[in-house]
Amino acid sequence: MSDNTSSLFPKIKSLITKRINYTPFDIHWLPFSTKLISIGESFDSKGVLQIYNLLKGKFSLLSEYNQEFPSKCCTLGNSSFASSEIALGDFAGNLSVLDLERGLSNFEIKKAHKGIIHSIDSLEINNEIITGGKDGLVKIWDLRRDKSCLMLEPKDIKKNFPECWAVRFRDYGEGKNIGIGYDNGDIKIFDLRMDKLLFGENLKNGICYIEFDKRNIPTNKMAVTTLGSKLYLYDLANINKNMNKIYEEVNTTIWGAKFLPNKKDMLVSLGGDGNLNLYKYEENELKNINSNNICNAPIIGFDWHLMKNGLACLVSLDNTVRICKL
Prior knowledge:
Blueprint: E1 13-19, E2 22-29, E3 35-42, E4 47-55, E5 58-67, E6 71-75, E7 85-90, E8 95-99, E9 104-109, E10 117-122, E11 128-133, E12 138-142, E13 148-152, H1 157-160, E14 164-171, E15 176-182, E16 186-191, E17 196-202, E18 207-212, E19 221-226, E20 230-235, E21 245-249, E22 254-260, E23 263-271, E24 275-282, E25 285-293, E26 299-304, E27 311-316, E28 320-325
Antiparallel strand pairs: 1-28, 2-3, 3-4, 4-5, 6-7, 7-8, 8-9, 10-11, 11-12, 12-13, 14-15, 15-16, 16-17, 18-19, 19-20, 20-21, 22-23, 23-24, 24-25, 26-27, 27-28
């Protein structure tokens, strides 16, 4: 691994900073639009969801929804041109799907988990949502039903009680997998169609985030970030106990990692020190090609725009929303 930065690659720069009056947890672009959605917790412990619009360099608040409980995580993977829906997992363990145009819930499961829902994911091509919670359970939900269609739990859950901190779908036609990460450092890849565990190991530190570089092909990469200041990159071309793995270590918790939509060999990591580190994968090496300190607080949510190359949004624990550009 290399930590040498290069002037040949541009840094991710902050273009617009907006102060907010709540603690943010996640942020996403609304697909195929200039709108973005931020969720978080107000100072009186209620939920906040805000929709912003970026137009001709101006960043404005379009609408705001207040919720009984703060949402910890959200996904727009089930949105399309015709549908503007967001799936939310909250601190009380409730799962809901909100219609952003009407401000009404299309789907809701009370107490989907016992305790906070830490992570959520979905795919646009079907009606399934996956959630991981404080109760250690991983559940897959069919939006056409009112209960989970599959539930996974780690062995000895009653003894060790590991919390599930990260979940991610991967669907490539002949295979359908989920990546799962726990607070005890366990990382797993489970095949839903074959109903078996494909891969598992312990990374010794809590798993903060899981990301696939491309979710519709079998030979992609998986990035995993940890509380222990390490970013791991797995080559999924051959999933087994000896699967090729490389890592990069920094001096802070890495809260997440996001591959560039148009450059699958490049990804950015979200630092607890407010740094965005840009990496390039080449010749079985993960190279740090640039680093930039965006703020003085942990960056805990980040999303690349799918259509506008290099445009991104992020939220950090200094209570700000930022628009960035590579």
